[in-house]
């Protein structure tokens, strides 16, 4: 009988396939394979404790019952979260489209031109609206973007400044809370003051202003900016992009940096996230901009081409020298925000802003006409009202009418208007105050701050305003890209597996998507139950006491885990413990996160087999015994093996008084078989966008929950809106981080159950060992454990082949595009290698197709090594081949058109890369990071 369970749909290989694969690997069964791969010491025998698996239909019905316990209201709470309409053409063609949400980070730029163009639109939008020339390709949220601005200011300010970062009192409270978390470990003195009336503090290296303020006010910050610059300080402005369609841009009054959120540009509130943060800077700071930056370069035919610029800033390269641990971005939300701007254009955005401002002005005028005091006269969309003793009554009356207002203080109420505000909403608010709603009021934006400069002038923002044109534009961008909907993405360390439609659908359900993160608890019971269940499940499957889902990226989960260790040690009086040991093979964000947690990184060597060198570990422990805070290890290791000594490593660290952090990046090779919290780890972060099926989305969104043992539970991240934060403050601006996508891992675990999750792990390990077995005679497999087996990924060593032939890993990666594949991970963790991770979701036919492509490429390399063709004349060096190249009238190459574009195994589903090989160095020398003038594409 055919197995129609969700697990059978999720796992790509059938029982018959697995039998054939086991034969190739030389193991009699999956249990025998796992016994041979995985050290017995770490094996867990107590099961996972997940509820019994249910079908897709049953799981969605359960989730719908949870959603029914949420009560979406008309939200006029504001404070960084606003109602917005996601245009249906964008929701259907981007948010719900696997061509967009299954794509990987655009490190292989030739097959990422669609999302890179969308991100270039995002950068152009942010640069235009802020009046600053360079913007990045999204950050995690407004609060963490402000923290990045603080760190950037510290790097860039004059050396004569001190350690003070001045924050205006009008900054959003959640932003201030995150700044406090991030400043303390780095010795930054955070000073909160009213910068409109008080001078910039002495010794300030930077200041942060809010525009408009949390109190709704609009101030002219020109004088403060000039005063800060006179002291050598950097000025950052947290600005509302929609407001900037009407207000003078920060760059126009002298700001050096602008940060903020793009949530209200088409992305639902989602109980707090995910939403794309942004950062824009003046020219002099462009090479210090954290995170990703899309730049315009040229390809092998001198045609314009896009790619990530200045990648030396990426944390996997800078490691312990990093000044930011940003890795995952918010690509999918950024694409939605950029598409929203393309769809509406400058006039449309201005109209939306005028609607919000007009509603606020009308409300303020109506309240004042009947004697209610409005505290700020200059505002954009938020009205602060003095309600006195009636505060509770007014809020309750409005809620009874279906509208949420915000208590700004015991005696004041904040009322925020947005794109979705209707006249009915305004009437409900006026009724709650006992006043009439009058006609439109005067514009509340002061004349001196009204914007006069143009924005969004590039033709892309004025060319796609009919649905036909927009649909075709989004389709054209998607067709340029390579996602899981086209074929296998065998990236080692990144786990690009199935993101099932049943998991994805609920993120669009209004009873989840339209909930404000600050809504009263009695309106969010469904969200609370879902999060409680998910946190319990995640804690159980990993063997920990508790989990916080607040970190909105894996790197932020790392930081939260290290801050928990640091706070626990400080609580015990061990304030001198500041050394973090990190193996040489570790993910680069490990070192970056340790630095940002106030720790000193000490690298531990790896032996020839890729394992932690125990002799060097002992030496480093002895050298830093009194100051040892922690070790960060990835398990299975980044080298793709289950290290047999992991329990011994944990014991050595604990004996020295340190804590053990196990990076959860490779948890997909442990689930159901071993639990880090049981074999010696004290804390882990979990990549929900990998192991638990949140899609990569072209580089984000991600969720990086932090899981801890019992003694660290009090040191989990705290609520950013709490009156008294815990020992460790928040690491993201929303209490539950990117809550709006937590339905995906909930659905995955509910449909898989314990048996399904366990089977998925074994299937992933089998797939990696099958690929290794098939390719070993063609490419040496660099590391293997006992019995010559790998874990969930294998590293193919091309270094000797490169010496013999001159063919590089980049040549192989680009040639794989001609064969219809995304490349494996290049030169990480070892230069000159390819790291392959096939995942459990690929079927045997696709695994074989990949292996056959790699074997065919090995033949091409041999032809170069044997002198049959020079490497510069080979298809390898010229790859990838575009349709324009393959169909050109002239052909004078040393290989045929068929060999170029239709190598063996391509079949009928040919993917044509839109550009040839991109010249990264040229693009970095000629940095351009906004939409080029249209004539550039005609040259």
Question: How do the helices and strands line up, and which of them pair or pack?
Answer:
Layout: H1 6-10, H2 15-25, H3 30-37, H4 56-67, E1 74-75, H5 88-95, H6 98-101, H7 113-130, E2 134-135, H8 142-156, E3 164-168, H9 173-183, E4 189-193, E5 204-211, H10 222-230, E6 234-239, E7 257-261, E8 277-281, E9 294-298, E10 304-308, H11 315-318, H12 331-369, E11 373-374, E12 382-386, H13 391-400, E13 403-404, E14 406-407, E15 412-416, H14 423-433, H15 467-479, H16 501-504, H17 510-513, H18 525-542, E16 546-548, H19 554-571, E17 579-583, H20 588-596, E18 600-604, H21 614-623, E19 628-634, H22 646-655, E20 659-664, E21 683-686, E22 706-708, H23 743-775, E23 794-797, H24 799-805, H25 809-818, E24 825-826, E25 833-836, H26 844-865, H27 875-878, H28 883-886, H29 897-901, H30 920-925
Parallel strand pairs: 1-13, 3-4, 3-5, 5-6, 6-7, 17-18, 17-19, 19-20, 20-21
Antiparallel strand pairs: 2-8, 7-8, 9-10, 11-12, 12-15, 14-15, 16-22, 21-22, 23-25, 24-25
Helix pairs in contact: 2-23, 3-23, 4-18, 4-23, 5-12, 5-15, 7-12, 7-15, 8-9, 12-14, 13-14, 18-23, 19-20, 23-26
Compact overview of the structure:
The chain has 939 residues and is α/β, with parallel strands linked by helices.
Largest sheet: 7 strands, mixed
Instruction: Measure the end-to-end span.
Output: 61 Å
Per the CATH scheme, the topology name of the largest domain is Aspartate Aminotransferase, domain 2
Unreliable spans:
934-939
Rg to the nearest angstrom?
28 Å
- What is the CATH architecture descriptor of the largest domain? 3-Layer(aba) Sandwich
What's the helix count? 30
Overall outline: globular
Beta-strand portion reads 5-15%
**Subunit organisation of the chains:** single chain
CATH superfamily of the largest domain, by name, is Type I PLP-dependent aspartate aminotransferase-like (Major domain)
CATH class of the largest domain: Alpha Beta
**Spatial sequence of strands, sheet with the most strands:** 2-8-7-6-5-3-4
Average pLDDT metric: 94
Structural class: alpha/beta
Fraction of residues in H or I helices: 25-40%
What's the total number of strands?
25
């Amino acid at each position: 009988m055919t197995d129609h369970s969700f697990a059978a749909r999720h796992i790509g290989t059938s029982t018959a396939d697995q039998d054939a694969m086991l034969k190739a690997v030389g193991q009699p069964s999956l249990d025998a394979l796992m016994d041979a791969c995985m050290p017995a010491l770490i094996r867990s025998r107590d099961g996972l404790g997940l509820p019994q698996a249910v079908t897709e239909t049953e799981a969605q019905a359960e989730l719908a019952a949870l959603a029914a316990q949420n009560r979406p209201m008309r939200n006029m709470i504001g404070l960084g979260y606003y109602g917005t309409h996601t245009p249906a053409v964008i929701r259907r063609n981007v948010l719900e489209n696997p061509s967009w949400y299954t794509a990987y980070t655009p490190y292989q730029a030739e097959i990422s031109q669609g999302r890179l163009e969308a991100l270039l639109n995002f950068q152009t939008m942010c640069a235009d609206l802020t009046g600053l020339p360079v913007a990045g390709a999204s950050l995690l949220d407004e609060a963490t973007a402000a923290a990045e601005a603080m760190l950037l200011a510290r790097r860039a300010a004059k050396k004569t400044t001190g350690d003070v970062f001045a924050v205006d009192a009008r900054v959003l409270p959640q932003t201030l809370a995150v700044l406090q978390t991030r400043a303390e470990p780095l010795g930054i003195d955070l000073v909160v003051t009213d910068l409109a009336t008080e001078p910039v503090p002495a010794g300030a290296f930077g200041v942060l202003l809010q525009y408009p303020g949390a109190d709704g006010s609009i101030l002219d910050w020109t004088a403060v900016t000039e005063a800060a610059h006179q002291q050598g300080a950097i000025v950052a402005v947290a600005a509302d992009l929609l407001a900037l369609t009407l207000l003078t841009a920060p760059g126009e009054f002298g700001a050096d940096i602008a940060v903020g959120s793009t949530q209200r540009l088409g992305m639902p509130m989602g109980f707090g996230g995910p939403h794309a943060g942004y950062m824009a800077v003046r020219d002099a700071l462009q090479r210090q901009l954290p995170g990703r930056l899309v730049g315009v370069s040229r390809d092998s035919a001198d045609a314009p081409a896009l790619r990530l610029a200045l990648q030396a800033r990426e944390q996997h390269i800078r490691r312990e020298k990093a000044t930011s641990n940003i890795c995952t971005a918010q690509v999918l939300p950024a694409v939605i925000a950029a598409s929203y701007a393309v769809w509406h254009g400058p006039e449309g955005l201005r109209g939306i802003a005028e609607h919000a401002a007009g509603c606020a002005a009308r409300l303020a005028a109506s309240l004042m006409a009947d004697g209610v005091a409005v505290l700020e006269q200059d505002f954009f969309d938020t009205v602060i009202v003095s309600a006195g003793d009636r505060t509770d009554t007014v809020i309750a009356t409005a809620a009874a009418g279906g509208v949420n207002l915000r208590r700004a203080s015991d005696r004041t109420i904040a009322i925020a208007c947005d794109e979705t505000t209707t006249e009915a909403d305004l009437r409900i608010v006026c009724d709650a105050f006992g006043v009439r709603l009058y006609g439109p009021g005067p514009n509340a934006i002061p004349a001196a701050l009204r914007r006069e400069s143009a924005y969004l002038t590039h033709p892309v923002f004025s060319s796609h305003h009919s649905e036909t044109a927009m649909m075709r534009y989004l389709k054209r961008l998607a067709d340029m890209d390579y996602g899981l909907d086209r074929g296998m993405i065998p990236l080692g360390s990144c786990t690009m597996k199935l993101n099932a439609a049943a998991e994805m659908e609920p993120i669009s359900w209004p009873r989840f998507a339209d909930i404000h993160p600050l809504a009263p608890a009695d309106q969010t019971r469904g969200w609370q139950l879902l999060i409680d269940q998910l946190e319990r499940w995640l804690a159980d499957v990993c063997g920990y006491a508790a989990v916080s889902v607040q970190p909105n990226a894996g790197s932020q989960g790392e930081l939260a885990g290290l801050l928990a260790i640091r706070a626990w040690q400080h609580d015990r009086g061990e304030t001198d413990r500041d050394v973090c040991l990190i193996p040489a093979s570790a993910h680069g964000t490990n070192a970056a996160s340790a630095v940002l947690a106030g720790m000193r990184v000490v690298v531990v060597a790896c032996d020839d087999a890729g394992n932690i060198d125990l002799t060097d570990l002992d030496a480093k422990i002895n050298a830093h015994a009194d100051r040892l805070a922690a070790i960060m290890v990835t398990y299975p290791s980044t080298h793709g093996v289950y290290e047999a000594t992991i329990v011994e490593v944990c014991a050595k660290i604990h004996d020295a008084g340190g804590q053990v952090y196990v990076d959860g990046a490779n948890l997909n090779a442990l689930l159901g078989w071993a639990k880090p919290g049981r074999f010696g780890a004290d804390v882990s972060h979990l990549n929900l966008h990998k192991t638990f099926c949140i899609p990569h989305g072209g580089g984000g969104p991600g969720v990086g929950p932090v899981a801890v043992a019992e003694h660290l539970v009090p040191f989990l991240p705290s609520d950013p809106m709490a009156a008294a934060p815990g020992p460790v403050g928040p690491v993201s601006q929303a209490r539950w981080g990117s809550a709006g996508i937590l339905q995906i891992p909930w659905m995955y675990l509910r449909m898989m159950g314990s048996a399904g999750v366990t089977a998925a792990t074994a299937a992933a390990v089998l797939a990696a060992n099958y690929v290794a077995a098939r390719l070993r005679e063609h490419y040496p497999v660099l590391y293997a454990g006992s019995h010559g087996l790998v874990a969930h990924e294998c590293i193919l060593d091309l270094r000797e082949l490169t010496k013999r032939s001159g063919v590089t890993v980049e040549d192989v990666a680009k040639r794989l595009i001609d064969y219809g594949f995304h490349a494996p991970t290049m030169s990480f963790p070892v230069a000159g290698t390819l790291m392959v991770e096939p995942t459990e979701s690929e079927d045997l036919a696709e695994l074989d197709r990949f292996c056959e492509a790699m074997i065919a490429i090995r033949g091409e390399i041999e032809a170069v090594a044997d002198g049959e063709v020079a490497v510069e004349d080979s298809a390898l060096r010229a790859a990838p081949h575009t349709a324009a190249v393959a169909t050109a009238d002239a052909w004078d190459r040393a290989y045929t058109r068929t060999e170029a574009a239709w190598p063996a195994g391509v079949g009928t589903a040919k993917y044509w890369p839109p550009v040839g090989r991109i010249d990264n160095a040229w693009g970095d020398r000629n940095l351009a990071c906004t939409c080029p003038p249209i004539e550039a594409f005609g040259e």
